[in-house]
Amino acid sequence: MSKNALTTYQFPTQMQWEYHQLMNSKESFLKNLSSAEQRKLEALYVELTNAWQRNHTETLNQALETKYQELREIQQIIKSDCADFRKSTEESLSANIQKKKQKLNTNMSSLAERKKNFEQSQLQRNLILSEKQQTLTQKRQTLAENQDFLNLESQRKSQALDEVEEKLNEKKQLLTETLELKNEELSKFIKIQTTYQADLQDLKQQLNASLQLLQTEKEQKLAEYKNLESNYQQDLKKIEQNLKADLSNYEEKLLQKLKQEILQEIQNCPEELKEYFLREEHSQISMKESLLSKETKERWNALTRGLSRIGLDKKGVDPAKFIELMEQHTLLNSN
């Protein structure tokens, strides 16, 4: 341990020996005791262990010594770093000072050259300025001469302006008189206009009254016309209904007459079909036609089969002869 190490508390040697003896003889003691006594002894051993472990001074001393050594190492590093930093800073400052000296010398030489150039340019400016002053003097003389001429012109124009102003005043007076006359005429016109407006208003009122009267008469006439129109419409409907009835009766009579004429032309028409025709039952007529057609077809087929039985063909036989043969065949079959 170093000379700077801290002293720590140590248990007496006798106490340490007794503690180790007790811990080593724990198992042998427990074997010879009952369960309750074993639990009690276990609790006592736990308390003894806790009391023994409360002395952490040795561990803390070791940790403190380690931290102290680390601190000393850090201090040494800081000292060495400070020396290096000081040295590098001095070198950097020296280099910067040297650069600034060089830059200053360069600027001084440049400034001297610029000063020389400025002096030369100043001499040139002075020469130019003297020339301009001479030119300015000449221009001043010319301006003085021009000023005299302008003064004469100004006097002449002033006289002309006075004459023009006098003429303008005369015209102004004339215009004033004319304006007064026009104002008088305007006042007269306003009076006439006022009278005209009053007359116009009266006329408008009269016209409005007349219009209202005419509107009332118009509405009355329209009402009368509507009544007449309604009556005419009713009469027209009645006439139309009568005409339709007469026309229907006339058509019915003509139709009946036409039907009678048609039936007179058809002498052999059955009475049943006549009744259907007169009652206009066309569906019954069509049905009757279908039945007759079907019956005729069936009879025709029967005739064909009968001729085939007797060895005749309907194509080569005259219809009258064909019917005669069929009747004979029917008589033979009946006998």
TrEMBL record:
Q: Is this entry keyworded Coiled coil?
A: yes
Going by the UniProt record, its keywords in alphabetical order are: Coiled coil
Coiled-coil residue windows: 54-121, 150-260
Protein name (record): Uncharacterized protein
Origin organism is Rufibacter immobilis
